[in-house]
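Page 47, continued from p. 46.
Same chain as before, 500 aa.
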Amino acid sequence: MMSHEFKTNAEYGAPFTGDETGIDRPAEDTNIALVVDLDGTLVRSDLFLESIFDSIARNGWRALLPSNSAIGSRAGLKAHFAGLSQIDYARLPFSEQVLASIVAAKDQGRKVYLATAANRQHAEAVAAQMPLLLDGIFASDEAINLKGQRKADALIAAFGRNGFDYIGNSGDDFHIWPHARTALSIGLSARQSNRLDAAHPSHVKLAPRHDGYRALWAAMRPHQYAKNALIFVPALTSHEFTPAALLAATLAFIAFSLCASGVYLLNDLLDLQADRAHPSKHLRPFAAGRASLASGLALIPALTIAAFAVASLLPPLFPLLLAVYFAGTLIYSLSLKKKMIVDVVTLAILYTIRIFAGAAAIDVVVSEWLFTFSLMIFAALALTKRHIELAARLDNGLADPDNRDYRLTDLPVIAALAAAAGMNSITVLALYVSSPEVASLYSHPHILWGLCPLFLYWTSRTLMLAHRRMLHDDPITFALRDRKSWLVGFSIIAVILAAR
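Result:
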């Protein structure tokens, strides 16, 4: 078993052995240690950023108020957030290539060390996941940020020049590779890889950099943009089909899509630990280590600024509603999603805001009927989503979610509430069709009665499929892939146009 009773980086002992490539080497190579970086190398993530996101998710913005001792240095900040976070190290996205290299080195009788700029708490917790594979650790503490040249100095002091092989993944590792016998890289860009080829005669490339752009695009959830089609509902119900109205609605759609993507990125960064424990969400780009946390963090303000830049082209009420939506989703991600039923009501309101924003973009008024109908049907869909999530946990033998205030035993109640909200939305729709307002807006108002059976069918079918475990995602996402839902949608539009 690996010992964690190390006190300073200088106490990690003399050089030992290891060959990560699996290539047979002479016997004397067993005296060459294999040293492995952590962030981006052994683990396809950044534990400093993970600790920040998890600290905020658990403690709110209070986590960003470190003690005086932590403010003065990056090492202190790393220690601060490491102490606040509760990362599930067993579920981290480990690199298969690096793990295989470590196992190959141990099979050859070599010693393997972990050397990282991450805080010691992270390093020891990761080492605890592989006690038979690692022989020691080099890590940052509250005073020293073991990065770049400092890490190189520590390794040279422990193993001597050319007394170790080193696996790294970033520009900071160019401080270390010149002093290693063999320079091994993973995830370097083509330019960095060529630079290392030129600088080190024994460069071994374990794996090139993956195309992270596709993963980031997936993390932005473009398939969810369909939800923003609600922006066009006021144009449809108010019969505003002029080119100016359609252009304004399209700009509003773009602004909401950009803003929503920024919020989705933030939500996924804050939900890393919960997503990794989820039956399907563990495949999300950040949770699976396919997308860079730093890139995702940088995209959030860029997308938000772009959203409000587009919004500035529309009437003043629209940017205000977009700001309300952004603030609401931010508060939801940080706090409200953890509160029972409050999360459902919040989601229903955020969906409904899209309709009000669409009306603001084309300068029309949303009727009380449309507002009430929207609130009811979106509450039903939010409850159905919770039902799907809890049912998946129940079927996979998982415990109650720790990031939601729901229990598996709540499933029957949630299903009943979803059905009640869905049926109430149909009742509101029927009352609207029979109201005097309809007669003044439509030439053939009686045709609108056809909406009731269409919504009744779609809502009831969605609830039944959820109960049968035939829905595995957000109900709206499911509808986008479901032919019958598309047929119902086109039928609804046809009924409204026929009643004009």
